[in-house]
């Protein structure tokens, strides 16, 4: 009977050591998992920030494209107006004075349009 007690006691000690080792391994794994979780959460946060930045840049580029298109339309109109003026210059001289007045008006119109557009452009920091 004493032998059985010794054997059981040895087995019990052995199992306690295995349990202690398993607990330590589990704690190490838990710390490792928490570390990986925090790393992944930080990466997700960075990705979300990147998405917000890219979205902002996309919206800004679309806005700038709109400004460029508006400028292109205004320049096209101005070119058409100037072509008409140039064609008119080949007509009799009494109309030339009217044409010069038209040119001045067109130039002032273009300057006012540009000033108006600059007021609505996003400020650069």
Care to describe what's here?
The chain has 2 helices and no strands. Helix content is 90%, strand content 0%. The mean pLDDT is 83. The chain has 125 residues and is mostly helical.
Q: Structural class per helix/strand content?
A: mainly alpha
Total E-strand runs: 0
What proportion of the residues is helical, as a percent range? over 70%
The value of Rg in angstroms is: 40 Å
What oligomeric state do the depicted chains represent?
A: single chain
How many helices? The count is: 2
Q: Strand count, sense and closure of the main sheet? A: none
Strand content: under 5%
Average of per-residue pLDDT values = 83
Weakly predicted, low-confidence segments? none
Which of globular, elongated, flat, extended, rod-shaped describes the shape?
rod-shaped
Alpha carbon gap, first and last residue: 89 Å
What is the helix/strand order?
A: HH
Helix and strand arrangement:
Elements: H1 2-89, H2 96-120
Q: What descriptors fit this protein?
A:
125 residues; mainly alpha; 0% strand; rod-shaped
Summarize the structure.
The protein has 125 residues and is mostly helical. The protein has two helices and no strands.
């Amino acid at each position: 009977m004493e032998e059985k007690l010794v054997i059981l006691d040895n087995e019990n000690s052995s199992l306690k050591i295995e349990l202690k080792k398993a607990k330590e391994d589990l704690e190490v794994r838990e710390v490792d998992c928490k570390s990986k979780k925090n790393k992944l959460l930080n990466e997700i946060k960075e990705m979300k920030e990147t998405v917000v930045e890219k979205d902002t840049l996309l919206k800004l580029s679309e806005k700038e494209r709109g400004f460029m298109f508006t400028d292109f339309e205004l320049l096209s109109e101005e070119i058409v107006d100037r072509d008409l003026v140039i064609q008119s210059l080949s007509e009799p001289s009494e109309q030339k004075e009217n044409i010069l007045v038209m040119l001045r008006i067109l130039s002032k119109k273009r300057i006012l349009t540009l000033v108006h557009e600059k007021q609505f452009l996003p400020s650069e920091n």
